[in-house]
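Consider the record:
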Amino acid sequence: MNNSKIKYVVCGLPKTCTTTFMKVFRMLGIKTHNNPICTDDKSFLDSGIIWNIDDNLNNLNMEFYDGFHDPPYSLNYKSFYEKYPNSKFILSVRNPQKWFKSLKIYSKLPGAVPTKFLRYFFDRDEVLEKDIDHFIKKYNEYNNKVIEFFKSKNKEILI
């Protein structure tokens, strides 16, 4: 379905200023949701938003809101592009070492970074210093995939 409505999608991984974009969207009058929470329990999956990359995003949030950030939305940039090709996409990035340090600190907060997300995306159950190279490799691979996807579509992405 090609919808001409413009959505604003931050494609960056958590801890790359994605919540700041939510605040900017609100300041600009773009209707956005609160921070999405990717919990490990079934209630989140039952909400109609399956946060994996294959999600077809046929849910009410897609129609109701215009600004999106953080998983599950950030990981679903391909589905956003297919459903809303006129949308604006932003890849938020930061220095990989600083990103890892922030993710590691954030992951210590109860429920902040669900194990399901870590397993799915990073093949790990926790964020440990000994795995820094692995996390940074996955971080860079993800960013490159996003860039290559939009390049292949001749679609501009803001970085």
User: Anything to note?
Assistant: Strands lie at 8-10, 67-68, 88-90. Confidence is low (pLDDT under 50) at residues 38-58. The longest helix spans residues 132-152. The chain is about 40% helix and 5% strand.
